Amino acid sequence: MKIRLIIILVIISNSCMSNFKKNKAHNIVTNKLYNYNQKIIGIWGTNADDNADMEINKDSIFYVDHPFKQYYYEVKKDSIYIYIDGFISKSKIMMTDNNHLWLIGYRDTIRFVRIE
User: Fold this and answer.
1) At 2, is the secondary structure helix, strand, or coil?
2) Disulfide engineering: 103 pairs with which of 1, 82, 91, 97, CB 3.0-4.6 Å?
3) Are 92 and 86 in contact (CB under 8 A)?
4) Is 7 contained in some domain?
5) What range does the domain containing 85 cover?
6) CA distance 109 to 97
7) Is residue 17 assigned to a domain?
8) What is the rounded radius of gyration, in angstroms, for the C-alpha atoms of the chain?
């Protein structure tokens, strides 16, 4: 009876460690896939020939329409959370390369081009 209990405990222990390793590996892959923290930093406009619409810094966004105000944001996986005067704007981030950014919100999708 004791041997069966020990065998069962060993099996359960090994399966838990296996799931832990799989979850850790998945999180590492997910973070590499969605490493937008550095990629989105820069000056963005809706058209490369026009003026800039916003500047994304390490922890804040400056909009041209609001020149003296900064809005803080967080990037979690493939989403950006922008904190705007007590409101949180959530958008999915999509980039085809380093110069094209789409913010896909609940109601609309905005395409940005990096301004150099």
Assistant:
1) helix
2) 91
3) no
4) no
5) 36-114
6) 17
7) no
8) 22
Q: How many C-beta atoms surround the C-beta of residue 61 within 10 A?
A: 20
In a domain, 13, yes or no: no
Which pTM was predicted? 0.68
**Total of domains in the chain:** 1
In this structure, are residues 44 and 55 in contact, taking their beta carbons and an 8 Å threshold? yes
Task: Indicate the DSSP class of residue 90.
Answer: E
pLDDT at 50: 81
**Predicted pLDDT of residue 49:** 80
Task: Answer yes or no: is pLDDT of 17 > 60.
Answer: no
Q: Distance between CA atoms of 93 and 56, rounded to whole angstroms?
A: 13
On the question of pLDDT at 6 being above 80, the answer is no
Q: What is the CATH number of the domain that holds 105?
A: 2.40.128
